[in-house]
Design goal:
About 65% of the residues lie in helices and about 10% in strands. By secondary structure, the protein is an alpha+beta fold.
Length: about 325
């Protein structure tokens, strides 16, 4: 029982640590994308920090479960209660915590409305897809006026009124196009940002179709939790850690590919052609793949356990 309480403590510490690091990192990324040349930027924004925390918390809980697997690699002699706690907390996260947190997020205002005061500032040349804009004056009631130089073959110059709403529609991600080519995320953060966006979007879509559809998506979590069964497959702990990381990344990659890869588009076309309608739903394909991964890990873990018991005898 003492070990179980310590594992609870470890899980809480891991959750707090990952939540703090990810919230600070995502907040800084959001702030960097909201920068406007000539405008001051506030780094102390508690509303933004809280909203990012709510957004990041489901992922932090998932990574905390991964941290528990590393803990079990470091301390292989764990009790049945510790194993039971790991799966109870894991199932609770995917079946209850994540849907509840996503519902909370949908009830909030978009992050952009909280921290982007404006998208225009005067005195700078800004290159867009088809022109170079120069804003000479900002109006107190919003918008501004300046000059637009057509960068096509005509090279036409005209006086233009700049509307912030139009600017926001034209600029998908960056508040100011001046920073679009200046700010570049490291490759690792680009991958994490893309996965963060995919997982959140697909989870919300699945939840909107009903809880049964979300359960199909949550099989993703079952596959991740089942890595537990192969955590001590090798006598070298460093190899086990590397294997766990590789499997975690691979499962994430496979689940993302289900919703984006051309291969799965062709598979769905094949199933439609052969009237196998159940498999034309991507969530159902995801469910089959994740259950197969889970059963595979369980079988490998069982075989390893039996072999270890035979060696002891």
């Amino acid at each position: 029982m003492k070990n179980v309480f310590f594992i609870v403590f470890v899980f809480i510490i891991l959750t707090i640590a990952t939540a703090f690091v990810s919230t600070v990192a995502i907040s800084l990324i959001h702030l960097s994308f909201s920068m406007v040349a000539g405008e001051s930027l506030s780094f102390i924004n508690f509303t933004l920090f809280f909203q990012v925390l709510i957004k990041a918390l489901p992922f932090c809980l998932v990574f905390a479960c991964l941290g528990l697997i590393f803990y079990f690699i470091r301390h292989p002699n764990i009790s049945i209660l510790s194993t039971l706690f790991y799966f109870i907390i894991g199932f609770s996260i995917w079946l209850f915590a994540i849907p509840w947190m996503l519902s909370m997020q949908l009830a909030q205002k978009p992050l952009v409305s909280e921290y982007e005061a404006r998208r225009l500032s005067e005195g700078f040349f800004r290159e867009t897809k088809s022109s170079i804009d120069y804003i000479a004056k900002i109006f107190s009631e919003g918008g501004g006026e300046g000059v637009r130089i057509d960068t096509s073959s005509s090279g036409h110059i005209e006086s233009v009124f700049f509307d912030e709403d139009v600017q926001e529609a034209e600029q998908a991600f960056y508040a100011d196009p001046l920073f679009e080519k200046t700010i570049d995320l490291p490759p690792v953060l680009e991958v994490l940002k893309a996965f963060f966006s995919f997982a959140r979007t697909e989870a919300i879509k699945s939840l909107a179709r009903g809880y049964l559809s979300y359960l199909m998506f949550a099989s993703f979590g079952l596959a991740l939790l089942s890595i537990f069964f192969v955590r001590n497959i090798n006598s070298w702990k460093l190899i086990n850690v590397s294997l766990v990381v590789a499997l975690f990344v691979s499962i994430c990659k496979i689940n993302r590919e289900v919703f984006s890869a051309v291969l799965f588009d062709k598979m769905i076309g094949f199933f439609q052609h052969n009237n196998m309608l159940w498999f034309t739903n991507r969530n159902n394909i995801q469910f089959v793949i994740n259950i197969s991964i889970t059963l595979c890990f369980c079988l490998i873990g069982l075989v390893h356990f039996i072999r270890q018991r035979q060696k002891i005898k």
